[in-house]
Specification:
Layout (H helix, E strand, L loop, with lengths): L4 E3 L5 H8 L7 H30 L7 E3 L9 H19 L6 E5 L2 E9 L2 E5 L8 H14 L3 E6 L8 H10 L3 E4 L2 H10 L9 E3 L4 H12 L4 E2 L7 E6 L5 H12 L6 E6 L2 H17 L4 H11 E5 L3 H11 L3 E5 L3 H4 L8 E4 L5 H6 L25 E8 L2 H18 L2 H9 L3
Parallel strand pairs: 1-12, 5-6, 5-8, 6-7, 8-9, 10-11, 10-13, 11-12, 13-14
Antiparallel strand pairs: 2-7, 3-4, 4-15
């Protein structure tokens, strides 16, 4: 059988712990590989970028930067309509995320919050095993709504001819330009800037382990801000005996389709459903052979069907796992949502496959992976916003609160100037 069925309980840590620790990939060896590339790009700019692009992509574009205003992609009407509909839905959902500036009176003083956007963003759109115009929409549209003024796409040169679908997505989303550079060298180029490429303060988007390592390294240096460290794509499905096994199997395989290292897990309290899903996965791998080797390896290496004693343990395991995508296909899915604390994005009911969120529903598909949903959120408008706090202190409040400032500043040994700066105003 392609995907194993494992009867478990939360006490079976020898079975569950390896899965919970999945994809927290040790980036140490990868960081050692990308660091010299990054440093070379920082020192030598375009000349170093040309060498790495030739080495890793086999071609060097005439120009690394494409001005989107001068590009006129030709795509069929169906693709154009799909991209436009997706953009409209993404824009509508993310519009409600725009926060309000607020103020409050505290102890007679006016305190407040203003939200300001970062100045510039690069959105990485992977090449390689698949093309992702949807990622361009997901990255650019929230940044535009946040008020980011300078947005560029960074993507591998794709064999020297960038697909019109990617260009169309960039134009529909509202990006300014496209940078033809992939991998760690592309991340370094848009982070530091080169003779021809503008530097960005923030870099987002999924990519290979080399892209992730470059983002993490440059973020650690304080050169850029990033969304979250990204690992292989993953889905966890919680289902009871009301779920359709054919649909569940398709949802597991839709993640396996991303790559050999993708993770697909079903948690259920129904052994009968587990057996039916297992059978449907095997059947689908035969009937739908496209990307077959990739899907099979993903399912065999990283696929699991866990049969827990009850749904409560399924949800408890899910919170420990903190999946990128969580599907809840139960009779009580609306109530079950309240049990979820840690997940990148949740898909409720039998008619909400992950693919809807990947493309068209309007939520964002740039999500934390590898358990990072315990501390990170999905990409959204707030990703690109900073909170600027302000205060206007009244003369009366300053006088009233000075004794407390005096006490605290003396305790910290800073009364000489901190305390004095308040005292002289009284």
């Amino acid at each position: 059988m392609a995907i194993p069925i494992l009867p478990v309980s939360l006490k079976d840590r020898e079975i569950l712990d390896p899965v919970l620790k999945r994809a927290r990939e040790d980036l140490g060896s990868t960081l050692a590989l990308v660091q010299p590339i990054i440093e070379d790009i920082q020192r030598n700019g375009d000349s170093a970028l040309r060498e790495y692009t030739r080495k890793f992509d086999g071609i060097v574009p005439d120009s690394f930067v494409l001005d989107l205003s001068k590009l006129h992609p030709k795509i069929d009407s169906a693709l154009e309509a799909a991209l436009q509909k997706a953009a409209d839905n993404i824009r509508a959902f993310h519009q409600i995320q725009i926060p309000e500036d607020k103020e409050i009176i505290v102890n007679g003083n006016r305190l407040g919050i203003r939200h300001t956007a970062v100045e510039s963003v690069s959105v990485y759109a992977p090449g390689g095993k698949a093309l992702y115009p949807s990622t361009i929409l997901m990255g650019v549209i929230p940044a535009k709504l946040a008020g980011v003024k300078n947005i560029q796409i960074v993507t591998p040169p794709q064999g020297g001819e960038l697909p019109d679908g990617l260009i169309a997505a960039a134009k529909i989303a509202g990006a300014d330009r496209i940078v033809l550079a992939g991998g760690a060298q592309g991340i370094a180029a848009v982070s530091y800037g080169t003779e021809t490429i503008s530097a960005s303060e923030f870099v987002i988007g999924p990519g290979s382990k080399f892209v992730t390592a470059a983002k993490v390294y440059l973020s650690g240096l304080g050169v850029i801000g990033i969304d979250s460290p990204a690992g292989p794509s993953e889905v966890l499905v919680i289902a009871d005996d009301s779920a359709n096994p054919i649909w569940v199997a398709a949802d597991l395989l839709s993640q396996a389709e991303h790559g050999e290292d993708s993770v697909a897990i079903l948690c259920t309290d129904s052994l009968n459903l587990a057996k039916e899903v297992q059978k449907e996965v095997d059947k689908a791998l035969i009937e739908r052979p496209k990307r077959g080797e990739m899907k099979r390896k993903s399912i065999e290496d990283n696929g699991r069907i866990f049969v827990f004693p009850n749904l409560e343990e399924c949800f408890a395991f899910s919170d420990l796992f903190a999946p990128e995508h969580l599907e809840i296909q139960t009779k009580t899915y609306k109530e079950d949502l309240k049990k979820v604390r840690h997940a990148g994005s949740v898909f409720l009911g039998n008619y909400s496959p992950v693919a809807m969120g990947d493309y068209i529903s309007g939520t964002n598909h740039i999500l934390p992976t590898a358990g990072a949903a315990r501390i990170y959120s999905s990409l959204g408008v707030s990703t690109f916003l900073k909170r600027v706090t302000w205060q206007e202190v009244s003369k009366e409040s300053l006088k009233e609160l000075y004794p407390h400032v005096k006490t605290l500043s003396e305790f910290e040994g800073l009364d000489e100037e901190h305390g004095t700066s308040v005292k002289i105003r009284t």
